[in-house]
Amino acid sequence: QVQLVESGGGLVQTGGSLRLSCAASGRTFSSYDMGWFRQAPGKEREFVAAISRSGINTHYIDSVKGRFTISRDNAKNTVYLPMNSLKPEDTAVYYCAARWGRGSGWTPHRTIYEYPYWGQGTQVTVSS
User: Fold this and answer.
1) What would the pLDDT profile of 13-51 be if each residue is shown by its tens digit?
2) Per-residue pLDDT for 87 more than 80?
3) Helix or strand or coil: residue 120?
4) Which strand ranges, in their side-by-side order, compose the sheet holding 18-24?
5) Vertex 100, ends 39 and 124: CA angle to 5°?
6) Greatest CA span in the chain, whole angstroms?
């Protein structure tokens, strides 16, 4: 089992940047595929980005490509989401999520149902 704690959220103006971090407990972090999701008020939680156990493979929703970059440091048990060129529509609570990796390959895991472990979330607010 893994416990996740997000940080780095805040209030920023349109065009600004934030860097989210997600710290994981345990000694098997490198065995987990990781993802970032977000949930805006009144909307369903949506997939943002995912990264494989090694960090080599990544996947994004189209609306954040070129602006957000998911990465991980397995030595520090941490996954990151630097966010640039932020827009008001990026306003949401951002969650990191983990799932135990299986097999040697990787396919992007984009649904909330694929991740059994979640952090408590961090608020990102982008003002216009």
Assistant:
1) 999 999 999 999 987 999 999 999 999 999 999 999 999
2) yes
3) coil
4) 4-7, 18-24, 78-83, 71-73
5) 20
6) 44
